[in-house]
């Protein structure tokens, strides 16, 4: 049984350190401002360890995976180069590691006070840049 249930529709209500995170991805000013002005919505369908996540924002895309199994999906920074990811439970957090590009974006999703907190990290060690995106359930 999964340690947390992320099933539902989640709307982005707050961001922490998003601009610095986007700068670390080498995105230009205009793209960063457009991204910061968006409030993406995540439609998460969870059946135990099986997930379907539809992200609606600047673009809409769908991700399907099973926790504990590697999967290949789009690279958010380069649509022409897919990445391999490994989602895993880390206590009551869902951690998704990018296995293709260790310095690329990694995600941790957890529930804190009824909100879903998505911590995104790019880079490693002292060069890592972390951003938090907080989502409220609709």
From TrEMBL:
Stored InterPro entries: Calycin, Fatty_acid-bd, ILBP, Lipocln_cytosolic_FA-bd_dom
Highest taxon listed in the record's lineage: Eukaryota
Pfam annotation, one family: Lipocalin
Gene Ontology molecular function terms on file: lipid binding
Domain Lipocalin/cytosolic fatty-acid binding intervals: 8-97
Gene3D superfamilies attached to this UniProt entry: 2.40.128.20
Similarity comment text for this entry: Belongs to the calycin superfamily. Fatty-acid binding protein (FABP) family.
Full protein name: Lipocalin/cytosolic fatty-acid binding domain-containing protein
Natural source organism: Patiria miniata
């Amino acid at each position: 049984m999964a340690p947390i249930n992320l099933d539902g529709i989640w709307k982005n209500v707050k961001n922490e350190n998003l601009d610095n995170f986007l700068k670390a991805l080498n995105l230009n000013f205009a793209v960063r401002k457009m991204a910061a002005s968006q409030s993406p919505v995540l439609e998460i369908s969870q059946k135990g360890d099986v997930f379907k996540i539809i992200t609606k924002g600047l673009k809409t895309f769908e991700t399907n995976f099973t926790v504990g199994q590697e999967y290949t999906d789009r690279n958010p920074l380069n649509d022409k180069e897919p990445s391999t990811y490994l989602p895993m439970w880390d206590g009551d957090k869902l951690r998704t590691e990018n296995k293709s590009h260790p310095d690329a974006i990694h995600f941790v999703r957890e529930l804190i006070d009824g909100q879903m907190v998505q911590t995104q990290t790019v880079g490693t060690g002292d060069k890592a840049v972390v951003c938090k995106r907080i989502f409220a359930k609709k």
